[in-house]
């Protein structure tokens, strides 16, 4: 039986593993279908502290993994199919039938950005297609950009990108936006933001060299195909937290994110902690994920020492 199992290996899970391993708790880390998380699909990361010249996303994750291994963290490949948090020791079933037991569990399974599932999209992720304005907006200084989406996230992304882009066109399949009134007004009052409403995205268009040149759309009124020209396409249609495998044992909100006690990583089950994007509905940055991973490890250590008071009445 393990002292702690960490499920997920993005910045949050790997940071938690580093802290647990340095505390001589010898955690086992379960890697899912995407070891290293979303950063392994990015190119250069320029906003993670400590790298003045930037660092490639996969390299950053590999360094964090090696750091955890150096202090004694054990890694196990596989997908967690089922968990049992009804009593201690907790049970974690990994694909293939193996069942692991632990006194504590840290959930850091992340959240996947939703994509349009249209031709040219996946082929150009990190090469003109992005799901994170904060991460990639800087690379499009002076360029024409598209933001796909009609909710608050899309309005926020569009407004943020005007700091760098010469223009930002919001593409949405409906004529009306889903965003809150204040977010709509903020975007509509920005002279750099333009609108292509009532358009259904069909394909990310590229030139003969493979560079993104815009988004092919269908005008839902005329039924004609159009090309909305741009140098980059930002998809902002939401995220899906990886929580389905938890069933109903952990409290989650209406969007599927794990609910934690404010200011902590504690879930509704004593001894089970959550960190990173799986519980972060707002920031979703590598550095905030890493910080919450540190919190989860320290909360976990206090729990194992018996010095943690679990009081959800304060939530």
UniProtKB/TrEMBL annotation:
Domain FAD/NAD(P)-binding: 3-293
Keywords: Disulfide bond, FAD, Flavoprotein, NADP, Oxidoreductase, Redox-active center
Database matches in InterPro entries: FAD/NAD-bd_sf (IPR036188), FAD/NAD-binding_dom (IPR023753), Ferredoxin-NADP_redctase_2 (IPR050097), Pyr_nucl-diS_OxRdtase_2_AS (IPR008255), Thioredox_Rdtase (IPR005982)
An annotated GO cellular component: cytoplasm
Needed cofactors: FAD
Molecular function GO labels: thioredoxin-disulfide reductase (NADPH) activity
Matches recorded under Gene3D superfamilies: FAD/NAD(P)-binding domain (3.50.50.60)
Cofactor binding note of this UniProt entry: Binds 1 FAD per subunit.
Tree of life domain: Bacteria
EC number(s) recorded for this UniProt protein: 1.8.1.9
GO BP: removal of superoxide radicals
Catalysed conversion reaction: [thioredoxin]-dithiol + NADP(+) = [thioredoxin]-disulfide + NADPH + H(+)
Family indicated by similarity: Belongs to the class-II pyridine nucleotide-disulfide oxidoreductase family.
UniProt-recorded name of the protein: Thioredoxin reductase
Organism in which the protein naturally occurs: Paenibacillus anaericanus
Lineage of producing organism: Bacteria, Bacillati, Bacillota, Bacilli, Bacillales
């Amino acid at each position: 039986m393990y002292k702690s199992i960490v499920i997920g290996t993005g910045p949050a899970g790997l940071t938690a593993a580093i802290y647990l391993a340095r505390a001589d708790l010898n955690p086992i880390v379960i890697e899912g279908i995407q070891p290293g998380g979303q950063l392994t699909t990015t190119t250069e990361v320029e906003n993670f502290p400590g790298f003045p010249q930037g660092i490639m996303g996969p390299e950053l994750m590999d360094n964090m993994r090696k750091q955890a291994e150096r202090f004694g963290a054990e890694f196990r490949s596989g997908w967690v199919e089922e968990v049992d948090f009804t009593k201690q020791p907790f049970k974690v079933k990994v694909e293939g039938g193996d069942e692991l037991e632990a006194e504590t569990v840290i959930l850091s399974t992340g959240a996947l950005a939703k994509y349009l599932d249209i031709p040219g999209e996946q082929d150009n992720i990190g090469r003109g297609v992005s799901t994170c304005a904060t991460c990639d907006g800087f690379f499009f200084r002076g360029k024409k950009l598209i933001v796909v989406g009609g909710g608050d996230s899309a309005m926020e992304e569009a407004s943020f990108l005007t700091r760098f882009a010469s223009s930002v066109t919001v593409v949405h399949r409906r004529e009306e936006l889903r965003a809150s009134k204040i977010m709509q007004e903020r975007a509509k009052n920005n002279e750099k933001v333009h609108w292509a409403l009532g358009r259904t995205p069909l394909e990310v268009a590229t030139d003969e060299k493979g560079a993104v040149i815009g988004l092919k759309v269908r005008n839902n009124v005329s039924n004609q195909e159009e090309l909305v020209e741009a140098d980059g396409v930002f998809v902002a249609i939401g995220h899906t937290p990886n929580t389905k495998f938890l069933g109903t044992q952990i409290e989650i909100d209406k969007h599927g994110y794990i609910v934690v006690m404010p200011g902590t990583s504690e879930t509704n089950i004593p001894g089970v902690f959550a960190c990173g994007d799986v519980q972060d509905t707002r920031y979703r940055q590598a550095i905030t994920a890493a910080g919450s991973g540190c919190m989860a490890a320290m909360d976990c250590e206090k729990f194992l020492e018996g010095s943690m008071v679990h009081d959800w009445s304060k939530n």
